[in-house]
């Protein structure tokens, strides 16, 4: 069984905090051990030197026949056996031991007739000093770790905050808000040091500005072309009406009508791209509206109302979306074409080969068609744009048993 880590554990701030904490703990432990070992060795050596000095003093007094000091004795019973054996062999030595629950530093040397002269030094003050040092190391390490963690977290939070701001702007740009900019303070002041976050923010702002410029130029070009085509198209339509009846005249009128439709589509796309479209909402029965759309399309489309709903929407725009979906299903798919109403969800489904892969992956793209299909790829593009103006969600999928399926989900009233 695999355990998934919580989402917050993957954030840079948490990873940095864990790294700082681990490094501080490792450094504090290493320094603490070094200091503790050094001070302990030094303290033990000092007590050993004191014990040997007392042993020399007691040996001199014993040899001079003077009374032994209170901290010296001949063959004391508490003397460790190993140290007693060493002294009985004619050598001097020291040993740290416990007596009555208290630490004692022993020093022993040979006396006369195989006896041993021993002295003791109370080691408890030194042990208390070592214990105090150990507590001081622990508390100072904890304090240092806490302060370092707070300072590090503050520094990392400033960096991650700037990264989160950059990510939010990137998401706004991907959502269509090309006016969004990071505007990092460091990028506004060239005299300040430029770190990596500032470089990313500057690159993102530059990319957004370049993308916005290109899209605006494309929108202006599309609108200008459509507007310029309107005047000659009006003249062509008038001239086509004056032609004598016949097959050539019908072909000319058909092509001029198609060109006029294309021009109107381009104008509609340019208005949608500008983002200045406004809704004119009213209450509509979705089932009745769908039947009107199908009737106006003059196609053999079956309407199924599973669950009717009354919606607040812009009727003209919704009819435009559904009309384009129905027309696309008949033009590029195969019958039967079924339009289903289920509450606030409307589905248009045909039984043809399904949508092209690029539509399923990236959505409809203007002027792109595949497989020899006729058209200019504008119908679905307009439907998607009008759905966004309505605040609806339009999804393109392929049905499991074959055929293309477009699902329009209208917003529910708040």
Describe this structure in words.
The chain has 414 residues and is of the alpha+beta class. It contains 10 helices and 11 strands. It has a 5-stranded mixed sheet with strand order 6-8-9-11-10, with helices on one face. Strand 3 (102-110) and strand 4 (116-122) form a beta hairpin. Helix 1 (12-63) packs antiparallel against helix 3 (124-174), helix 3 packs parallel to helix 5 and helix 5 (196-242) runs antiparallel to helix 6 (247-274). The longest helix is centred in the N-terminal third of the chain and has 52 residues, at 12-63.
Key terms:
alpha+beta, 15% strand, 414 residues, rod-shaped, 10 helices, 11 strands, 4-stranded antiparallel beta sheet
Sheet of most strands: 5 strands, mixed
Q: Low-confidence spans: pLDDT under 50, at least 5 residues?
A: 4-10, 371-376
Query: Got a strand count?
Result: 11
Rg for CA atoms: 45 Å
Order of helices and strands: HEHEEEHHHHEHEEHEEHHEE
Q: In one word, what is the shape? A: rod-shaped
Number of helices in the DSSP assignment: 10
- The helicity comes to 55-70%
Question: Roughly how many Å apart are the termini?
Answer: 42 Å
As a percent range, the share of strand residues is 15-25%
How much is the average pLDDT? Answer: 78
Outline the secondary-structure elements:
Blueprint (H helix, E strand, L loop, with lengths): L11 H52 L8 E3 L6 H8 L4 E7 L2 E9 L5 E7 L1 H51 L10 H4 L7 H47 L4 H28 L7 E4 H12 L3 E7 L2 E4 L1 H18 L4 E6 L2 E5 L7 H6 L16 H12 L2 E6 L5 E6 L5
Parallel strand pairs: 6-8
Antiparallel strand pairs: 1-4, 2-3, 3-4, 5-7, 8-9, 9-11, 10-11
């Amino acid at each position: 069984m695999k355990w998934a880590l919580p989402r917050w554990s993957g954030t840079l701030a948490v990873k940095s905090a864990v790294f700082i904490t681990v490094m501080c703990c490792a450094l504090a432990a290493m320094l603490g051990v070094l200091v503790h070992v050094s001070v302990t060795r030094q303290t033990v050596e000092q007590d050993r030197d004191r014990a040997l000095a007392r042993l020399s003093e007691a040996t001199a007094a014993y040899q001079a026949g003077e009374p032994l000091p209170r901290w010296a004795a001949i063959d004391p019973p508490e003397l460790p056996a190993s140290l007693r054996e060493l002294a009985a062999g004619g050598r001097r030595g020291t040993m740290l031991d416990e007596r009555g629950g208290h630490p004692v530093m022993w020093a022993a040397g040979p006396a006369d007739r195989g006896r041993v002269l021993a002295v003791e030094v109370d080691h408890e003050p030194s042990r208390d000093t070592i214990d105090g040092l150990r507590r001081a190391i622990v508390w100072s390490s904890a304090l240092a770790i806490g302060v370092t963690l707070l300072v590090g977290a503050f520094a990392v939070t400033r960096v991650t905050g700037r990264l989160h701001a950059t990510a939010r702007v990137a998401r706004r740009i991907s959502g269509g808000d090309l006016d969004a900019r990071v505007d990092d303070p460091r990028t506004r002041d060239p005299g300040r040091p430029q770190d990596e976050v500032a470089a990313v923010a500057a690159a993102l702002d530059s990319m957004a500005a370049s993308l916005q410029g290109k899209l605006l130029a494309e929108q202006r070009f599309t609108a200008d072309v459509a507007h310029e085509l309107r005047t000659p198209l009006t003249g062509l339509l008038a001239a086509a009406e004056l032609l004598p009846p016949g097959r050539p005249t019908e072909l000319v009128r058909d092509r001029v009508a198609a060109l006029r439709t294309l021009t109107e589509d381009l104008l509609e796309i340019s208005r949608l791209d500008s983002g200045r479209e406004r809704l004119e909402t009213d209450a509509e029965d979705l089932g009745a509206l769908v039947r009107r759309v199908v009737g106006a399309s003059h196609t053999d489309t079956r309407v199924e109302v599973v669950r009717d709903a009354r919606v607040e929407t812009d009727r003209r725009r919704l009819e435009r979306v559904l009309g384009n979906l129905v027309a696309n299903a008949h033009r590029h798919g195969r019958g039967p074409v079924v339009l289903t109403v289920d509450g606030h969800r409307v589905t248009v489904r045909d039984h043809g080969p399904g949508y092209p892969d690029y539509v399923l992956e990236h959505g409809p793209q203007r002027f792109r068609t595949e497989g020899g299909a006729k058209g200019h790829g504008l119908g679905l593009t307009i439907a998607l744009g009008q759905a966004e103006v309505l605040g609806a969600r339009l999804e393109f999928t392929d049905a499991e048993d074959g055929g293309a399926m477009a699902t329009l989900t209208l917003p529910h009233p708040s």
